[in-house]
Each structure stands twice: as structure tokens, then as C-alpha cells.
Amino acid sequence: MSDTALDTPVPLSVGILAQSDDTAEELIGYLVRAGVTAMRISGPRELATPSSHTQHLHCVVIFPDDYAAQAIEAALASLAKAAPDLLQIIVTRQPLRFLSTRSDPTSAINRFVLPRPTFGWLILDTVRSNQQTTKPPS
Questions:
Q1: Which of 61, 85, 89, 111 has the maximum number of C-beta atoms within 10 A of its C-beta?
Q2: Cα torsion for 54, 24, 68, 59, to the nearest 10°?
């Protein structure tokens, strides 16, 4: 393998879970313009059941406020088991709710909680700043 192959960065890939079409489309457009591959996740069930479409993701950005609390909590628990290294960025009007959902404070869930509203550049900076620590599942 050549040195250039080792130096070539893997493009970042982000999944977006948002009930609002405008929120999802605007964030996907912003990330794509910034050079990030972005896709929409259809709902909490898809988030909870990683598929061939979502296995390559470095990060998921979740807007949980418009979904049933139990569906989001179940999806996050499944996601933590299935892909513990996957970066979770949760954008919510209730940030404390998601900071306190860790039943085991020693768990190593790679999670950032941002208050809503937030800006696309802050989400992008969070993804990029964690690029070295997040790897898509193999």
C-alpha cells in the first residue's frame, strides 16, 4: 500500500433523523456543501436497526423532540449496543433529558447533546472535531 493511500482521509458520512422535512433537507444540503456525505434516516426504528445503508456512518444527528420519547430511548439503547463507537449528536429543546439517560455513568457512549435551536456549522464542527475518534463500523 502506498503512503498516499494511507494519507487519504475517509469522507465523513452522517445520518440525520429529523421528523421535519425542512430540518433534514437543510442540514443535509449544508453538510453536502461542506464535503460530508449525508443521508436521511427514516425514523427511530431504522436508527435502532442498523442496516447496510447506515453501517458506514461516522455519526448520527438526532432531532428527538418530534418523536415519542419511548421510541427514541429504545432506538438510542439499541444503537449504543449495536454501534457503541458511533458519534451521536442529539439536538433537542430538553438537553438535560439526554444527559441523564445514561444508566451507567462509566459507559463510553460517544454522545454530544446540543440545545435546540442550533446552527449547522456547530453540528459540522462537532462531527469534524470527533473525526479521529469516530470510525464507521466494519
A1: 61
A2: 40
- Quote the pTM value: 0.83
Closest among 85, 92, 91 to 132, alpha carbons compared: 85
- Residue 135's nearest CA partner among 1, 13, 5, 2 is 13
Torsion of CA 27, 60, 73, 65, to 10 degrees: -10
Strand order, beta sheet including 13-17: 37-40, 13-17, 59-62, 87-92, 111-115
Q: What's at 20, amino acid-wise?
A: S
pLDDT in tens, the chain (138 residues): 445 555 556 679 999 999 999 999 999 999 999 999 999 998 898 888 866 566 789 999 999 999 999 999 999 988 888 888 889 999 999 998 887 555 555 455 788 999 999 999 999 999 998 875 545 544
